[in-house]
Design brief:
binds 4'-deoxy-4'-aminopyridoxal-5'-phosphate, alpha/beta, Aspartate Aminotransferase, domain 2, 405 residues
Length: 405
């Protein structure tokens, strides 16, 4: 199937940069060695792997031996959360804290821990999606072992103040894991300055290949996630198995490019976001941006078009590829758990679209997106009984509450 749609779903995945592909190709062919082998084939692969680890550690200012290759953020989240909690339980710290707005892969870890006798707490966020620091502090106690927070939310782009959160955790001697999937390579991250224990990231969100990610593990905290009796020579005893060298090379190159392009990409994306918002808001009423207007990554924009279902909008605005809710849950017609946790009224949450801008987006793409979204909204509103109710002043939230009770 071919598509000529304008891609505005960069938070879901990104196309591989052609320079990344070129860098990977030799390692699928003549340079096919296993980095654990001591002959030349192995040593060439090891050199490539070393280079890739350096490119990644440079991006986040970690040490070389703090970068562990995984299959992606889901696996990194799993290792950081489940393994460290299993370790911490042996020291009588069996409480895990995260936010209600986390990615499903983190919420699944919380579910798993719950099922196996750990105490898990999912914290509420403020209406703008950011965390109330005093609320976090109140919820930390002697039994708390680990806090896990998403740096940039995948549905709203809301960015948490990791430095403040880290200070709170450090003061109480609690480990901190950051799901940085949507922040890695897009906004500056300095793990030393942030003073965090673990960080997860995926290659395919930064124009690298799919199926590869990293778990940063601070040296002093690696003992919490190391596999007992694992070979310390392979991924520092944290992850075993044969390393996919071509994918690691691709991720390293993607990290290097991301570091070089970061400030120009962010400036371009900020300007495109401004264009999108001004274009939509100047032509439609009853549209809302969900999430903080100050603390956010500008490439992820969550907009509600009141009176329209998000899914219907997606179908109608058919020159653009966007998401309603997050891609991982968009096959379900339920209200996004992120928007619900932010206290967004159901009718507004259901009318939301996630539009994500990337480095290949151009101003002309945004013009087309505005044109399609405005036309689609106007068309759907003409047919929408909900829009009629809104216009005649009926409290639509009460109607929704009755419908779901
Ligand atoms: N965390 C966040 C915030 C994400 O956006 C994603 C991907 N949507 C993941 C974790 C999981 O990443 P992956 O699918 O690459 O394992």
């Amino acid at each position: 199937m071919e598509t000529s749609k304008i891609y505005l779903d960069y938070a879901s995945t990104t196309p591989c940069d052609k320079d990344v592909v070129a860098e990977m190709v030799p390692y699928f062919g003549e340079q096919f060695g296993n980095p654990n082998s001591i002959h030349d084939y192995g040593q060439i692969a090891l050199e490539a792997l070393t280079n890739s680890r350096i490119q990644i550690k440079n991006l986040i200012n970690s040490e070389f031996d703090e970068i562990v290759f995984t299959s992606g953020s889901t696996e990194s989240n799993n290792i950081a959360i489940i393994r460290s909690m299993q370790y911490l339980k042996t020291t009588n710290k069996n409480r895990f804290i995260t936010l209600k707005t986390e990615h499903k892969s983190v919420l699944d870890c919380a579910d798993y821990l719950n099922r196996f006798g750990f105490e898990t707490t999912l914290l509420d966020v403020k209406n703008d999606g950011t965390l109330e620091f005093s609320y976090l502090e109140e919820n930390l106690n002697e039994q708390t072992g680990l806090v896990s927070i998403c740096f940039v939310n995948n549905e709203t782009g809301v960015a948490q103040d990791i430095k403040k959160i880290s200070k709170i955790c450090c003061d109480k001697n609690i480990l901190l894991h950051i799901d940085a999937t949507q922040a890695f390579g897009k906004i500056p991250i300095d793990v030393k300055d942030l003073d965090i224990d673990f960080l997860s990231a995926s290659g395919h969100k930064i124009y690298g290949p799919k199926g590869i990610g990293v778990l940063f593990g601070k040296k002093q905290s690696q003992k919490f996630i190391r596999v007992p009796r694992a070979n310390p020579e392979v991924e520092f005893g944290i992850r075993s198995g044969t390393i996919p060298v071509p994918l690691c090379v691709g991720l390293g190159k993607a990290a290097e490019i991301a570091q070089n392009e970061m400030s120009s990409n962010i400036n371009k994306i900020k300007a495109l976001k401004k264009q999108l918002i001004e274009g939509i808001f100047s032509q439609l009423d009853e549209v809302y941006i969900n999430g903080s207007s100050e603390n956010n990554y500008p490439g992820i924009i969550n907009i509600s078009f009141r009176g329209c279902e998000g899914e219907a909008l997606m179908m109608e605005a058919n020159r653009i590829a966007v998401s309603s809710g997050s891609a991982c849950t968009s096959n379900k017609l339920s209200v996004s758990h992120v928007l619900a946790a932010m206290g967004i009224p159901s009718d507004i949450a259901q009318s939301s679209l996630r539009i994500t801008i990337g480095k290949y987006t151009e101003s002309l793409d945004i013009d087309i997106a505005i044109e399609d979204l405005v036309a689609a909204t106007n068309k759907l509103r003409l047919m929408s009984p909900i829009w009629d109710m809104i216009k005649s002043g009926i409290d639509i939230e009460k109607v929704f509450q009755r419908r779901s009770s």
